[in-house]
TrEMBL record:
InterPro entries: P-loop_NTPase, Quino_amine_DH_bsu. It comes from Cladocopium goreaui. Gene3D superfamilies: P-loop containing nucleotide triphosphate hydrolases (3.40.50.300). This is G domain-containing protein.
Length: 883
């Protein structure tokens, strides 16, 4: 109701009289306002707005009669005043509350000696109580009823020790005395779960609820009986016949004053925690029964807050015992525990007899009256309201959840990015591209697709211990038996890397193309049931085809001596022998291989030549273990070797002291293998000198070598990580500057032989991946680096790179039926796949090599032979690319 109309009628001789009318209203706080009136002959209406009325209102209407003509009527004017006091139901009930309290006090204390006065007070009390009950009924009828017709149902699960008033709370929350029998002693009389559907407080204007009253715990039958009770409870709740699939609030009823059965309380927390996980806490309400009420609301709130602080402290102690949380994760758990709500009540079966049976305890203003004011009715309605709001906000507990979230880490959703690449398949051909179909090569073939998926999960409290697992749609996340999981699912578990600061996202990568991520929050991701957080995803439908065909020059598969290194000088290709006794050869490329020649070194120059570089028409060779160095003048008609130099002069031990070299001006720089300095050979004087020691490098003296083959850029020598997680930078213009070491973490922790060789193009250095699955790109100016995914399921084992146009080609050490190429414009990889895999016999698996080199001449790639082959493989790449 928004307004009241005050109508007043009167009779007068309108030919002789006229009327002057005014009206105002004054609130109890003394603020007054003028009211609007509507006049007609013989009547007046006053409109009183009560929509914002919060206290009693006094309305005054003044009617003054005057003669029709203006004559002096001083002292004889007639004025009539009508006063009306308007009360709200609440105001009237407050007045009755005072009246009933006073009458009860008088009767209880015997203040009236006269029996007639006592009887009169009893009569007044009965009349005031009837007025109160009628006003409560009016208040109930006048309220706006929003719950009627709603199909929402909110499920409460009540737990507690025997004797805490748990079943009595059921009666108060549902109004059903039959289904919620109250126990008369400390022994619980039932072991069955009581499910009571009702409107909350038996009030049709309140939401539908299902109150689940569980058997009391902690009676004289011991812990084993308590554990059995909980197992039976969960079994009954999971029964297919129950309507409840989710729990919207767990209500833990605790005696606020009686502190027995602490061990039972610990067992209950453990059972609740195992059944509902860490999400328990945001759905947990602690109801303190028998908590004395104070008139001071602030003081009462402080009492409840102290109880909450003690419970949070106790729960965290139990969390530490149960899970031994790492400090970083413990903070997240404590944040969850702080979500618990505390409510105070002091209920008694006799209190319900103090109200009319047709007045529910949720009736407006009932909580003003004793005993309902002391019983905590306002806290019970707050419990209901909070549960409704929280549920509509998306919080609830799945009743039958075999894998609840144990820790604070929570993955809400996942985004992904694809790295396209080839998959090596085995078995019957299932592809749709004929030129990849195997013919006489057996059952191995390449198929394009997303070879690597990079996931980014978003949520909160991610940590290093979190794990992820990709599974097909047929599998179920958190399956305790893992029946439909891969047989070796433990080997497919993925480590994650949380992002700082905040740890609100984490990334992980996988080669397996499932349809769902099963996420496990730390700690203890070693059991299948822990991978219970499900994150479905769909692969984008973008074209993910990185394969391009190439043709093989079969016209002249030239049989050559078995070389380790190919070196290009103009259009002359030199093959450096890998074994003593084999010749060095050269040939020219003018459209095809011509002018093939072989040269035999003198016996003293026949070594295991490991690396070859060219500078100013001179070949520089480094022997295995970096022990010998040889220069070869190729400007002569017949290449002329120079003096053999022992690079280990002054070194007492054997082994890979040096592993790679770079030529700058008239100096040879030997990159350290087991050594901690760069050894520098002056080609003019033939003398050695040492660089300053490598700064900040941890290394194993017994390691074969630390770095891969170097290259020169911007007057600096760079060598990629090989057995240490760092690359090497040396300033050749100022040897007084210490050699720099830049840390680069290996993705494969057990991997050595990470990146094999640097090549420069377009202002960047690119390192060939050997046991790592990324190309390492380094900016030689500021020494920053990034990793480019190669899109292979296995370590690529690529060695020497070659630049052709705007592309970098890498030399696979195994089969050459697929050649990797980096598009430097897009920084993405493609793969050249043989147009027909019916390669010549000497082009097949014999091309497998521990190291291989490649040189680019015109539109061809020239690959050195493998360990068991003796032919150069020439790949024509012009058909695969059009610039």
């Amino acid at each position: 109701m928004d307004s009241l109309m005050l109508s007043t009628k009167f009779d007068m001789d309108q030919t002789r009289m006229r009327v002057a009318i005014s009206a105002n209203s004054c609130a109890a706080n003394a603020s007054c306002s003028t009211l609007r009136t509507a006049n007609s002959p013989g009547s007046v209406d006053v409109d009183v707005n009560i929509s914002a009325m919060t206290c009693p209102l006094n309305v005054t209407l003044v009617i003054a009669l005057r003669p029709a003509e203006d004559i002096d009527m001083t002292g004889n004017a007639s004025t009539y005043t009508v006063s009306l006091m308007i009360f709200t139901i609440k105001d009237r009930l407050k007045h009755l509350l005072w009246q009933i309290s006073e009458l009860k006090a008088r009767i209880a204390t015997g203040q009236e000696v006269d029996s007639q006065d006592v009887a009169e007070n009893v009569k007044k009390l009965a009349e005031a109580s009837r007025s109160r009950d009628e006003l409560l009924r009016r208040a109930q009828r006048a309220r706006e009823c929003r719950a009627t017709g709603s199909h929402e149902r909110f499920t409460f699960l009540a737990v507690g020790v025997t004797g805490t008033g748990k079943s009595e709370l059921c009666r108060w929350m549902t109004g059903n005395e039959t289904a919620c029998p109250s126990s008369d002693s400390l022994g619980s009389h039932t072991e069955e779960v009581q499910q009571v559907p009702a409107h909350a407080f038996a009030d049709a204007c309140q939401p539908l609820i299902e109150w689940i009253d569980t058997p009391g715990r902690g009676d004289t039958r011991g812990k084993n009986h308590d554990a059995k009770l909980w197992n039976n409870t969960m079994t009954q709740l999971k029964d297919a016949n129950t309507k409840a699939t989710r729990i919207h609030r767990i209500v833990w009823v605790i005696n606020a004053a009686w502190k027995r059965a602490t061990d039972v309380r610990e067992l209950m927390l453990k059972e609740l925690r195992m059944s509902f996980g860490v999400d328990l806490y945001k759905n947990l309400a602690i109801v303190l029964n028998f908590l004395p009420r104070t008139a001071n609301k602030t003081a009462y709130s402080e009492i409840k807050q102290r109880h909450k602080e003690r419970f949070v402290e106790w729960i965290m102690q139990r969390e530490d015992v149960m899970f031994q949380w790492h400090p970083d994760l413990r903070k997240g758990v404590e944040d969850e525990v702080n979500n618990i709500d505390i409510y105070g009540i002091n209920i008694n079966p006799k209190y319900l007899m103090e109200k009319p049976s047709d007045v529910p305890i949720s009736t407006p203003y009932l909580n003003l009256f004793y005993p309902f004011s002391d019983a905590g009715v306002d806290d019970l309605t707050a419990l209901l309201t909070s549960t409704v709001n929280q549920t509509r906000g998306g919080h609830s507990l799945l009743l039958d959840n075999p894998h609840p979230r144990v820790g604070p880490g929570q993955a809400n959703n996942v985004s992904l990015a694809l790295t396209c690449g080839p998959w090596q398949r085995h078995g019957p051909w299932q592809g749709k591209f004929d030129y990849w179909k195997p013919s006489k090569r057996g059952d191995k073939y390449w198929e394009p697709g997303a070879a690597l998926i990079t996931f980014e999960a978003h949520g909160k409290y991610f940590s290093d211990g979190d794990k992820a697992l990709l599974l097909p749609e047929s599998a179920s996340c958190g399956d305790r038996s893992a029946e439909r999981w891969p047989d070796r699912w433990r080997t497919k578990v993925l480590s994650t890397k949380p992002h700082l600061p905040g740890n609100q996202s984490t990334t992980f990568q996988s080669e397996f193309q499932g349809t769902q991520v099963c996420f496990c929050e730390a700690s203890g991701c070693n059991e299948s049931w822990r991978f219970g957080q499900k994150l479905p995803f769909q692969l984008p439908e973008d074209d993910c085809n990185p394969l391009t065909t190439y043709s093989v020059d079969r016209t002249n598969p030239k049989k050559v001596a078995n070389p380790w290194n190919l070196v290009l000088v103009g259009k002359r290709v030199f093959g450096v022998p890998r074994e003593p006794g084999l010749p060095m050869f050269e040939y020219s490329m003018e459209g095809r291989m011509t002018d093939y020649k072989e040269y035999i070194f003198e016996e003293e120059h026949q070594k295991h030549w490991f690396q070859a570089v060219v500078s100013n028409n001179t070949l520089y060779l480094l022997a295995k273990e970096g022990k010998f160095f040889l220069s070869v003048d190729i400007n002569q008609h017949t290449p002329m070797p120079g003096k053999l130099v022992d690079t280990h002069t002054g070194l007492t031990s054997d082994g890979w002291h040096f592993f790679g070299m770079a030529v700058v001006g008239s100096s040879i720089y030997l990159v350290p293998g087991r050594e901690s300095n760069v050894r520098i050979l002056d080609l003019v004087t033939g003398t050695f000198r040492l660089s300053l020691p490598l700064e900040g490098l941890r290394y194993d003296k017994q390691s074969s070598n630390k770095f891969g083959f170097p290259c020169v850029s911007q007057n600096k020598i760079f060598a990629p990580p090989w057995e240490v997680e760092a690359f090497f930078v040396m300033n050749v213009l100022d040897e007084s500057v210490p050699v720099q070491i830049k840390h680069v973490a290996f993705e494969r922790r057990m991997a050595i032989c990470a990146w094999s060789e640097f090549v420069e193009f377009g202002g960047f250095l690119y390192a060939s991946p050997y046991n790592e699955k990324t190309i390492l790109r380094v900016d030689p100016g500021d020494l920053t680096w990034v990793k480019l995914q190669v899109g292979l399921s296995q370590p690529p084992r690529w060695s020497g790179p070659a630049v052709l146009g705007k592309r970098i080609f890498f030399a696979p050490t195994e089969d050459l039926d697929m050649v990797p190429v980096l598009e430097t414009d897009t920084q993405k990889l493609k793969y050249l796949v043989a147009e027909s895999l019916e390669l010549p016999q000497n082009f097949k698996n014999q091309f497998s090599a521990a190291q291989r080199t490649v040189v680019a001449v015109d539109n061809t790639l020239q690959f050195s032979p493998g360990l068991n082959a003796n032919a150069i493989m020439v790949v024509n790449v012009s058909a695969g690319f059009e610039d």
